[in-house]
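Need tokens for this chain, all 119 residues.
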Amino acid sequence: MLVAALLRFYGLDWDDGHHLHPDERFISMVEEKITAPSGVWSYFDSAHSPLNPYNRGEGSFVYGTLPLFLTKAVSHAVGLTGYGGAYKVGRALSALFSSRAWTASRAWNPDVLREEGKS
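Here are the structure tokens for all 119 residues:
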């Protein structure tokens, strides 16, 4: 498991900052446009929320907002912001969550544990 996790984190900047993955490129552009709302009610006013990609000039946004918001928050916390930095944070978060999901699915599935005990 440790080797798999290390491989997930190795080479996060595999495209050398050229944004070769089209989904990442689009999400990076949207991440750069969204801003924190002035308050809780501003967030829930979806017609005017600064976190709503549709209010930032995007005619379509088919991705979930949790990864977008989490990447925006963590990238600001670590100082890797904007088009040239947030995608690295997004890749690291993706590696972290996929590694944890795999580990959790193995640990919480009794059928997997029984099968591993047989071999």
